[in-house]
Amino acid sequence: MKKLLCSAVLAALSLSAHADYSQHPRATELLHQLKTGFAFSDSDLNNVRSALTAAQKLPQLVQQEQKAPERVETWTQYSQRIDTSRIQDGAKLLQTHQSWFARAESEYGVPPAVIAGILGIETRYGRITGSVRVLDALATQGFDHPTRSPFFFSELTQFFVFCRDFGFKPASPKGSYAGAMGAAQFMPSNYRRLAVDFDGDGHRDLWTLPDAIGSIGHYLNEYDRKRAWQRGQPLVTRARINGAVDASIPLNPRAVTHTMGDLRKLGITGEAELPENLAVALLDLTLDGGAHEYWLAFPNFFAVMSYNPRVYYAMAVTQLAQRIHDAHAQALGAPH
C-alpha cells in the first residue's frame, strides 16, 4: 500500500514542476524581443524574469494540445457537443443579450446564432473559460513543445505585452491548456489585436459577454481579410455525390477550391440548386464505423475555420448555430 501511495504522489508531482524558465536558453531571446520590439523598461523586464522564475512546467498540457478532440475524434464523437443544453442555453443567450448580438450583426454582418455557436463550443457561453494559469500554459508550450514551440513562444511574448498593457500580473489570468483567454478564448496576440470594448466601459474584457460578442464579430472580419465574413452568405449545405469522389478534389481544405460548376461536372451537387460560379469546397466527415458524410462548404465556413483551423470544430459551430437559431425562432413563434 505504501508503494502504491508513493507512486501516486510521484505521478501527481510529475504533472507540475517548478521550472525556473528564467534560466532557459531562450529566455534571453524573449527578453530581447520585449525590450527591442515592445519597449519594455528595465522594471518591466524584471517583472518578466520574476514571472518566468515562478512559472510551473505542466507537461500534460502538451499532451492535451497534441490530442485535442478535433484532431483525434470522429465526427460522430465530436458532434456530441451539439447537445440539448448547449442548444437551449444558446437560444436563451440570444434573448438575454439580444441588443449586443443585434449590434454585432449590424456592425460586422455575423448572425447572432453564429457568434453564440462559437461561444457555446468554446466555453459554454462563458461558464468554462479555463482554470490553467496562462503563464504556465504558454511557458510550458513555448519552451518545451516538441513541434509547435515557435507559435507558443510568440504567444508567450505577446502574453507579457498583454499583461503590461492591460494591467494584469502575469500569474493572474487563467485560461485553456493552450493559453486562450476569456469567454471568446482569444490567444494573447489576438486579444491585443482584435478584442473590442463593445460595452464602452473603457476595458476590452473578454471575460464579459458583451465584449466577447463584439470581439468575435470583429475577429471573423479582421483576422484574415482573405477569409473575412461575407454578410448574408451561407456556411454549408449537404453534398450529393454521384458515384465515388473524384481523386482530384481536395477534401477538408482551409479555403474554397472550386466553383459549383466545377464540382457539378465531377458529379457533385448540393441539396438545393446552387449558382455555377459559387465558390465551394468539399468536406468529408468521418463517422464511427468508417462511414462518411459529405458537405459543401462556402467562404463563411472558412471564416469560422480562421477561429480554429479544424473542420470538425467549424462544423460543430455551424450546426450548433443552426440549432440555436431554430430553437430561438421557435421560442419566439417565428418561422425558422
What does this structure look like?
The longest helix is centred in the last third of the chain and has 22 residues, at 311-332. This protein has a 5-stranded antiparallel sheet. It has helices spanning 2-14, 27-38, 42-54, 59-66, 69-72, 75-78, 84-96, 98-108, 112-123, 134-144, 149-166, 188-194, 209-222, 260-265, 299-305, 311-332, and strands at 17-18, 56-57, 132-133, 174-175, 236-241, 258-259, 268-270, 279-286, 292-297. Helix content is 52%, strand content 10%. It is globular, with a radius of gyration of 22 Å.
Helix content bin: 40-55%
The order of strands across the largest sheet is 6-8-9-5-7
Order of helices and strands: HEHHEHHHHHHEHHEHHEEHEEEHH
Judged by helices, strands and strand pairing, the structural class is alpha+beta
Low-confidence regions: 1-14
Quaternary arrangement of the chains shown?
Answer: single chain
**Whole-number radius of gyration?**
22 Å
Rounded average pLDDT? 94
Count of DSSP E strands? 9
Q: Topology of this protein?
A:
Layout: H1 2-14, E1 17-18, H2 27-38, H3 42-54, E2 56-57, H4 59-66, H5 69-72, H6 75-78, H7 84-96, H8 98-108, H9 112-123, E3 132-133, H10 134-144, H11 149-166, E4 174-175, H12 188-194, H13 209-222, E5 236-241, E6 258-259, H14 260-265, E7 268-270, E8 279-286, E9 292-297, H15 299-305, H16 311-332
Helix pairs in contact: 2-3, 2-11, 7-9, 7-16, 8-13, 9-13, 9-16, 10-11, 11-12, 15-16
